[in-house]
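Amino Acid Chain and Its Fold in Token Form
===========================================
Purpose: to set a sequence beside its fold so the mapping can be learned.
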Amino acid sequence: MSFAGGAILKVLPAFVAASANLTPDPSGIGYYDEELFLKVLRTGYVGARPLSPVMPYSFYGNMSDDDLKAIFAYLRTVTPVRHRVDNSLPPTYCKLCRQIHGAGDQN
């Protein structure tokens, strides 16, 4: 389950989210290319959908393009894990990671 997401991140009671699946599986960021990866970390948006304010994208957004490209290249080498995590859906129990997160019941 390395890099497969589902860990509950809580900054304040109002901001709770599960970490995203960063593996190259289609349920993770398998559809990302390098350009999209950099854009998401620079803007905090995946298309029109904002990332949760719990996610530390602003920290990574200040890194150089070369550093972000190196992170993306590394993430392409990790083992793909099918693990759907969707913070826009109601939290449900996930038998894979044993956490409660959006789309948990779809795993």
Notes: The longest strand covers residues 8-12.
